[in-house]
Specification:
Layout lengths: L2 H23 L29 E6 L2 E3 L12 E8 L6 E4 L2 E2 L2 E5 L2 E6 L8 E8 L10 E7 L1
Length: 148
């Protein structure tokens, strides 16, 4: 093939590629109301991915002696760590149903401050994780034990 023909073929290929790319970047236009676009080759939209189920794997610490503090934070509260899955920034750690100020670490870690006076008496406490934006969502629970 001569140089002229190669140059023309390359130029034509480049031009077709440019046109093809330009056409593929244009947003698809919706057909007028009441008419379907049978020629469309677009794949149907994938269903929305459901939110990950929240679970609690462990509490840190899992128990404490009555009257004793642990993981003391700057504000004097005791830092309770919760590991699990599916946590979001909106989730709240609850202590016997009462929502606590919660710090989001990542989808597997939350922390909340427990007032030390809540640790004065022995007994079991239900720790749960709540999504305040979805009150119907299941709340995973674990027992935190305050021993004598």
């Amino acid at each position: 093939m001569s140089r002229t023909k190669i140059g023309m073929v390359s130029s034509l290929t480049f031009s077709l590629l440019t046109i093809s790319l330009a056409c593929s970047k244009r947003p698809a236009e919706a057909p007028p109301a009441g008419k379907s676009d049978a020629s469309s080759t677009a794949a149907p939209a994938a269903p929305a991915t459901p939110a990950a189920e929240r679970t609690i794997a462990h509490l840190y610490p899992p128990e404490v002696r009555a009257g004793k503090t642990f993981n003391v934070m700057v504000d004097g509260r005791c830092g309770l760590g919760v590991t699990g899955t599916g946590f979001t920034r909106a989730d709240q750690i609850c202590w016997n149903g009462q929502a606590l100020k919660t710090v989001y670490g990542n989808p597997g870690w939350l922390t909340a401050g427990i007032p030390s006076e809540w640790l004065a008496n022995a007994g079991d406490v239900v720790v749960s994780v709540r999504d305040p934006g979805n009150p119907a969502a299941a709340e995973p629970r674990q027992t935190f034990r305050i021993t004598k």
